[in-house]
Amino acid sequence: MRRVVFNQKGGVGKSSIACNLAAISAFEGYRTLLIDLDVQANATRYVTGLGGEDAPLGIADFFKQTLFPSPASKNVQAHIHETQFNNLHLIAASSELGELQSKLETRFKIHKLSKLLDSLDEDFERIYIDTPPGLNFYSVSALIAADRCLIPFDCDSFSRQAIYGVLREIEEIKADHNERLEVEGIVVNQYQVRNALPQRLLDELIAEKMPILPVYLMSSVKMRESHQACKPLIHLEPQHKLCRQFVALFDLLEERP
User: Is pLDDT above 90 for 198?
Assistant: First the structure.
């Protein structure tokens, strides 16, 4: 199962959701791969504590080898790294992704990620893909490679408008490139239960038959502490309410056909 976490709007929690669901998947015993496609490499830092020049070779190196093939480029495992967490593996991101993007676009390498994941299906039971904000080469590559898409929503009116555009883009990619791609649901993130505006926005989206998932992720300083510690919540504080919400979300997704 390949899940992509995507929204064109930044700051809605894509990396936090992708990393925490992947960490729970691994904790539950699934052999899990997390792929970071964002030039900011937030997911990479979150699960390794490494970034910049210290980040391991990863997805940028893979894409570079699709541009300049060599015998070494056939070694898929060279791009995959174990993390400190059992069953959780990573294909890391780096700033080099920004330099490669235009070359990859002009050489039409948009299906290379999908082919990479085809070769890894027997090695990993669950694959989670973190994407950059905006619809660019890397996010489109992820949507072409994925089976299901989760759309984070941070209960903001601007984020609400972005959802309509995201759904249109996904339908277009599904029609043109990946007929198996399905929107698994909209993930409500940074939810403030005492604030009337988020509930009103959600009520309106539900009335419009939007696929709002029934597990809401609360706003909590614990998430920032988790980022700082470079430990997903299931390893930092598994009994925290936000962590239990992530587990409930994971269980909900696993129960769906």
Answer: no
What does the DSSP assignment read for 119-150? Answer: TTTTT-SEEEEE--SSSSHHHHHHHHH-SEEE
Q: What is the pLDDT of residue 257?
A: 73
- Collapse the DSSP code of 55 into the 3-class scheme (helix H, G, I; strand E, B; otherwise coil) and give the result: coil
Task: Measure the CA–CA gap between 185 and 168, rounded to whole angstroms.
Answer: 14
Identity of residue 138: Y
And the tokens for 45? 């830092």
Phi, psi of 179 (to 5 degrees): -70, -15
* Closest C-alpha among 155, 152, 244, 157 to residue 192: 155
Tell me the mean pLDDT in the region 45-60: 82
Q: b or e along 149-180 (b: 16 or more beta carbons within 10 Å of the residue's beta carbon)?
A: bbbbbbbbeebbebbeebbebbeebbeebbee
Contact 149, 3 (CB under 8 A): yes
CA dihedral 241, 246, 251, 254 (to 10 degrees): 180
Tokens representing residue 94 in the block: 């780096």
User: Angle of helix 241-255 relative to helix 221-229, nearest 10 degrees?
Assistant: 80
Mean pLDDT of 159-177: 93
Q: Give the DSSP H or E segment for 44.
A: helix 42-48
